[in-house]
Amino acid sequence: MNILLLLPEVFQLLIVTALFVQSIVQKDRAVQLKKWLPWAAALGVMVCFGSLAQKGLLFSRTYRLDDLSQFFKMTVSLGFFLAVINGIDQPLLEKEKRCDYFLFMALSAWGLLLLCSTVELISIYLALELASFSLFPLVPLRRKSGQAAEASVKYMLMGGVATTVGLFGFSYILAAQHATDLQQLIHMPWTWSHSPMAVVGLILFLSGLLFKLAFFPFHFWAPDVYEGAGNETAAYIAVLPKVGAVAVLLRFSPLLKPGLEITTILAVLAAVSMTYGNLAALLQKDVKRLLGYSAISHAGYLMVGVVAGTPMGVKAAAFYTFSYVLMNFACFWVLCRESEDGKNLMLEDLTGLSKRSPGLAFVLAVGAVALAGLPPTTGFMGKFFLLSAAWNRSCNWLVVIAAANVAVALFYYLNLVRYAYTKADGKPFEPSHGPGKNRSGWMVSAALFLAALLILFGILPNLILRMLAF
């Protein structure tokens, strides 16, 4: 046992402990929180970055440290840091509740860090529940909002059902294969003819992960929860749980051989997920609901790398997950700055953004273009890697559908840019008195830094791919 191998997890646990103690003993908690939490979250990113080369097996070989786990831990830590900076001054959260709010957020991030390294089914289930249950109290913490309470009930109810189904699937896997270690399970038969109970169990067990990914048909909670939660909370829920879910799914990818029933099922659902998400997003006027349906479509794109079942597919999915964190936070960052009173923004509320704040309008444009998958952004390179990895893996039809969905998605992503810059008749917008005057210089600078990263990693993707040596 080497405690140095667990520095990211230990450091995050220290943040959780500090928040817990502060929530109990501090009176003026909100002021003190702003003094240390952003710096601690930033240090956590540095700790994870310094641990990228760590490798080993711990806890009776149920906890693996490798390039995949360490990269995803760095992604989770980066997302937590961005969530802290983005939500430290959110307007619809009472000051006395902010310490508790970030306590649950930090606890969820800690669960996701554990999830990135677990390679045993029981450990995966426990880490997933830790990361999930910590999110449930965050959604209703929105001042005087019945919509937030409704979203919270839906999220908890659907999350509980997904958890139950996943645990039921685990029992089937254990009964059929008599093993819970992923390394053993990968080498076992997963065909309907050899072990139908194992195939059914795996489908049910993966349902819990697919729920977090907002993957069809476990997607229905996402638009409602995004709409009902606060802008800053929605930004966290839209990004971080997906990182942990993808990390576990990629552990299962070696058993997804071409032609297997489970591989075909996931490929078909991926096609439906990206198509349904894009078509539904075309009809949305609420920006957060639009991004909710966008998340459903991106879950389908991520599954393309998983069903490829190759090291190239794993690398492509990991790269796209990292890109997705930056792309989504860039868009939500603009929404949070633009919505001064914390209310949900409609597309019309973005009119005149280029006049009110040219910097935020540029960031929104870069984020939307990246989500659409256009060069020179990291979104384009991510989709290119995913489609290349899946080609000639007995699912060329899925690659064609994914490419067609990229074209469909252009309409609603570029619509965000159209509202920010021009009218329907092509004339520039006049400056309007819309929401969002809370645009401090450092917040806009942070948004511009996110946009710069999206372009930089799109031009030089090797800066990220070098971390993925597997």
Number of domains: 1
Low-confidence stretches: 426-438
Largest sheet: 2 strands, antiparallel
Secondary structure: number of strands: 2
Q: What class would the helix/strand composition place it in?
A: mainly alpha
- Write out the strand line-up for the largest beta sheet, numbering strands in chain order: 1-2
Distance N to C terminus: 24 Å
Element pattern in H and E: HHEEHHHHHHHHHHHHHHHHH
Mean pLDDT: 84
Percentage of residues assigned to helices: over 70%
Q: Evaluate the radius of gyration.
A: 21 Å
Give a structural overview.
With 470 residues, the protein is an all-alpha fold. It has helices at residues 7-25, 29-50, 67-87, 98-117, 121-133, 146-177, 182-186, 196-212, 221-228, 231-252, 261-281, 287-308, 311-338, 353-356, 358-372, 378-390, 396-421, 441-459, 462-465; strands spanning 56-58, 63-65. The protein has a two-stranded antiparallel ribbon. A hairpin with a 4-residue loop joins strand 1 (56-58) and strand 2. Helix 13 packs antiparallel against helix 16. It is globular.
Features:
single chain, 470 residues, mainly alpha, two-stranded antiparallel ribbon, 2 strands
SSE layout and pairings?
Blueprint: H1 7-25, H2 29-50, E1 56-58, E2 63-65, H3 67-87, H4 98-117, H5 121-133, H6 146-177, H7 182-186, H8 196-212, H9 221-228, H10 231-252, H11 261-281, H12 287-308, H13 311-338, H14 353-356, H15 358-372, H16 378-390, H17 396-421, H18 441-459, H19 462-465
Antiparallel strand pairs: 1-2
Helix pairs in contact: 1-2, 1-4, 2-3, 3-4, 3-10, 3-13, 4-5, 4-10, 5-6, 5-10, 6-8, 6-9, 8-10, 9-10, 9-12, 10-12, 10-13, 11-12, 11-17, 12-13, 12-16, 12-17, 13-15, 13-16, 13-18, 15-17, 15-18, 16-18
